[in-house]
């Protein structure tokens, strides 16, 4: 049974039998930051919002403040409070936490009440708003691959104890972590049965949490699965002594973890606007015969903007360990019809139905913040529509090996430092579509990541 629609008028009634509410917003790394409040407190702030310390935009994922003072949260402004406003449309009950009510929040400036530029939900809303002015909507889906490691039985004493599992993970090298399943076996029907309670538990919990999985299967790699919800998997994994790893490249010599994003645009009546009603008899390339003019301009925007938005797709040092040649990861500005080696995979007739016409952006890894990744796709794609850009490169040849560099399109950044410099440079496409405030802030957080890496002494 689905949860009812929540409004200011009925929220007290819906929470009548509850005594607490969980609230959370997203930081730039896509991590949920929140708190548990009493129902009384929640009802008092549900309309106008409440103060939430801005430091979540002033520190990294390990709660270390950025070395560079950034405008949103810093010592000079005293790490001031932001205004956090609950989104009533996001209402869920958390099935693995006794059905406690849960709401997402968005962050706003307490003085101007303008959206905080670095708020992932706000950035995505801003990007989508440009489409909505024309009566269009964006449709999107995310595919996440992730490794799963299980602590040895002795590490948690035959009990589902997340604290002892965490201790084992902390005190042992990555190479010592045993995968949930051994060997390479994508799309296995039998392997999930060995962890049946966990495997079906994830699927059922996602349905109850109204974050349904369309597919949930093994991928090629030891303990690698593919699904769509990081929050649910991380929350339930600890109960079974299982640690899901959403790093882009957890282990050398094996494929990395992708976070492919599927996007299309539809009209207010639900018509797919990337699909062409009748095939074009003389398209620029045969692969584009069934793609509408709007879709072609959107593709041109994606390809033209791709090099400048890489930090939003590949935000960590580790991200670029995945983006290397010959590991089923795209490394160039490239596209192709049903081409899984290309950065942008066009899905359209004649190999699929017209209503399923869409782009699969294959560059993001599983470590990407999905709100930022989708905002970037929509923003640069729509820039192509507004400017009526032409597709800058021909399609990737079918015979080219997966991930091979091509003279058809530029090589994407090889590391976070180079990607961040392109992202932050004057006149970048990122600055054009997102504005200086966001680029300076998020770019500053990536410079922090690069600096920590440069100062680290590793086992290499």
UniProtKB/TrEMBL annotation:
Residues covered by the GS catalytic domain: 120-460
Pfam families from the UniProt entry: Gln-synt_C
GO biological process, alphabetically ordered: biogenic amine metabolic process; glutamine biosynthetic process
InterPro entries: Gln_synt_N_sf (IPR036651), Gln_synth/guanido_kin_cat_dom (IPR014746), Gln_synth_cat_dom (IPR008146)
One Gene Ontology term of the molecular function aspect: glutamine synthetase activity
Top-level taxon of the source organism: Eukaryota
PANTHER family assigned: GAMMA-GLUTAMYLPUTRESCINE SYNTHETASE (PTHR43785), TYPE-1 GLUTAMINE SYNTHETASE 2 (PTHR43785:SF12)
Similarity remark: Belongs to the glutamine synthetase family.
UniProt name for this protein: Glutamine synthetase
Species this chain originates from: Rasamsonia emersonii (strain ATCC 16479 / CBS 393.64 / IMI 116815)
